[in-house]
Design goal:
- The chain is mainly alpha-helical.
- It is globular, with a radius of gyration of 14 Å.
- It has seven helices and no strands.
Length: about 100
């Protein structure tokens, strides 16, 4: 029951125990992806070309604070390269990042 999940419109889920190895590898993959794309515009553009925002939106539903933190960091880096249609749809993580 994290505050991040309720803040961004996600519903609380009653999922049973989660394998810590899967969670740990997901967090590390997101950290590496964020470090790989930080301050490198061509790499961020490639993420948008290969349709990463819908995948990240699904990953944002995971109710773990570290996963949600790194997904939002990736969204923040991609926000300026997303099209007007994406911004006009009132996409909840994007509207939460930009006040």
């Amino acid at each position: 029951s994290s505050g991040i999940n309720a803040e961004y419109g996600g519903e609380e889920s009653t999922v049973g125990p989660v394998c810590w190895r899967n969670m740990f590898s997901t967090i590390n993959m997101l950290r590496i992806l964020q470090k790989f794309t930080k301050w490198r515009a061509p790499r961020v553009i490639y993420l948008n070309v290969y349709k990463s925002p819908p995948i990240l939106k699904k990953t944002l539903k995971v109710s773990h604070p570290m996963v949600q933190l790194y997904v939002l960091k990736l969204f923040k880096g991609q926000a300026r390269y997303m099209g007007c249609r994406f911004r006009s749809r009132r996409f909840c993580p994007y509207s939460a990042l930009i006040p």
